## 1
Amino acid sequence: MKFVLSIVLNAIALWLVVLLLPGLDVTSYESGDPTVALIVTYLLLALVWGLVNSIIGKVVRVVSLPLYCLTLGLFALVVNGFLFWIVSWLSDVAGFGLDIDNFWWAIGGALLMGLFSAILNGIFNRAGDRRERD
């Protein structure tokens, strides 16, 4: 259940990021109902973001550890932008998904995605913790 909630919250965060940044756009796959197709596209992009972040992200973070130390953690912005760009590339290969104008929009999108995901996960995890205590 937590996995599904995480995907839904990341999809909402991605939707907010695309609303705020003009350099990002989402292209839904072809379907009968455009609203359903767009919602499913956001959910699929959130799933791809989670997989890329957990699989490729760990490897990239370990390899770039010296740069993290050298830049006092600021290199994390570049790494997260790179991972966001990979999500765009993978979704483009699949024929739908995230379109990013350039790498700077990818860095901004990754920054906002992390911020919105943290806020949404904090809100909904606290509400879930309260329900478990009662």
Note: The chain has a mean pLDDT of 90.
## 2
Amino acid sequence: MAYVHIAHDCIIGSNSILVNLVTLGGHVEIGDWAIMGGASNAHQFCRIGQHAMVAANSKIVQDIPPYILAGRHPVQFSGINALGLQRRGFSDEDRLQIKRAYKILFKSELNQTIAIEKIKTEIPQNALINNILDFIENSKRGII
């Protein structure tokens, strides 16, 4: 869309949407099907996961994991991108498992290391859960 700036060495996934005035610093990675709201800015080396949706006017300075809604100031977890996932054919069970994983990570008040271990032991592992865990464990800037 109009006036989007994509700096050097960025990777933009398939079917992603960058709304008007989005600005990406160098080396930003955006996963497939991610949506960035208008006038959002991403600091260099940040990552936005697959199927994530970022609210307008967001200032992104840490990684945003896959399948979630992120917004507010500072940017934080707002829930899973349930409608987007449903529209893209994710099953009710898949959406439930994603929601359970993020509830442990963001709502349990556990530190990230313990939350990840709890997700690994309490939620059946599949490609989606493994994608979430890999994304978080490989974050260099930390997650929101």
Note: The radius of gyration is 15 Å.
## 3
Amino acid sequence: MKSHPLFGILLLCAMLACAPLSAPRTAEAAAVSSVYDKQPDVTEKELLQFLDLLPQFRQWTRAEKEEAHPILNKGKADFLYSEKAAQWVKEKGWDARRFFCVMGRMAAALVMVEEGGNSMARPKDMPEVSKAELELARKHLGSILKASMDNAQVQ
């Protein structure tokens, strides 16, 4: 599927769109050098659970003026989120580091899918993506796009 060159960037913006940051990354996450460190590959079950929650999370971030997005931390891909965002995902049954790891890896995978699997297309603030994660993103592309749309409603 060939798409417009800006598709990956626009999709990433839609997936991660939030208002200005209100607090630094959590102390829990700061103890590890990156949210992606020592994290296993994203599984299909996790991705589907993540996609169920993503529209609600995006609506919550807009309402609360919260920000959650990939960053470079000391030259290494990481993910920025507030204590408040971490608490919100914990209340929904997720480990915060894992939730934001899944978000960052799938955002990076989407950019790579848009660029034909080219890992060089992945921005430096996004993590490396395994072959299995890239295939998972390809397999569930429609669901990822649907969950990332602005008109998604909280159930």
Note: The longest strand covers residues 69-73.
## 4
Amino acid sequence: MQKQQGFTLVELIIVIVILGILAVTAAPRFLNISGDARASTLNAVKGSLESASALVYGKAIIAGVQNNATGTVTDAAGEIATAFGYPAATVAVMGIILDLDGDDWTVAAVPASDPASVAITPDGTAYTATVAEACQVLYTQSTAALAKPTIVVQSAGC
């Protein structure tokens, strides 16, 4: 009589259960889709800030306030405070130039920052000074004539 070769149904089920457990625990580490989406959105906000800053600076040149430490330019959305021709780092100014949805984004002043800075964070996150935990765009206003504002994406915590 020949002995049959193969796996029993119990052995197959045990292997499938083990593979399922490995997939559930390991897959989220490799597939961080929501974190990647947030990081990409932060990069889009950075691009919007850069474009808006350039437009405001162009208006400041026309108004002749590009070399002033403080000034304002008029836009269809309202008065925009400037620092050396670029948008000032205030919550009100960011609200005007970015027009972000308040349900999806939070714009907050960075505490005790010199020069003035604001943090733009997606819903569900808040400003943090710890870069490894941050999911935010930091906008630091211009500090001198011909000096562009600093815009930094921190997405390690997304």
Note: Residues 40-154 form one domain.
